[in-house]
Amino acid sequence: MLRVICFFTLSLISIFSYAETISCGGKFITVSDAPSAKEPFFSVTIEGSPTSSTHLFEIQNDFLNVRCEVTSKGNHVVLINHFCGGSGCADFGNFGIIEVSSGKVLLEPSQRYKGNMEQAKEIIGTEIKPFKCELKSIEVCLHSKIELG
After folding, report:
1. Do residues 77 and 98 make contact, with C-beta atoms less than 8 angstroms apart?
2. CB of 76 within 8 A of CB of 70?
3. Is 122 exposed, middle or buried (0-12, 13-18, 19+ CB in 10 A)?
4. Of all helices (H) and strands (E), which one includes residue 87?
5. SS3 assignment, position 103
6. Which residue among 8, 69, 138, 149 sits deepest, i.e. has the most Cβ atoms within 10 Å of its Cβ?
7. pLDDT tens, position by position, 27-72
């Protein structure tokens, strides 16, 4: 009986992926790690009325850092740094920006090697502070443990 309970518990742990939620502009932002190699995507879901949206990011870039920012114009946006850990990667600067009110993608994190810091600063309207990734912070920082092969 104990073996069945342990097996069942371990099975549940492997089914669910890690997720964390932060608040931004009156909406909830849920950030989830990829559940498996068959679904190799981080997800960022913006929930609240009148619209909700989900955005997927490949775990080929195995780090995803997310936080809420307010632009110089007063708009709430989700700032995403989606990067890889290799020596040729843009560790601080492959940004994505999503407008919270509409779910519209303002900037794609598509510059894996050279980054897009200048474009992100132009959209935000201020300098972009580094992610601190501390416990109990208002940031979500994920590193996927899934090996793609």
Report:
1. yes
2. yes
3. exposed
4. none
5. coil
6. 69
7. 999 999 998 888 999 999 999 988 899 999 999 899 999 999 999 9
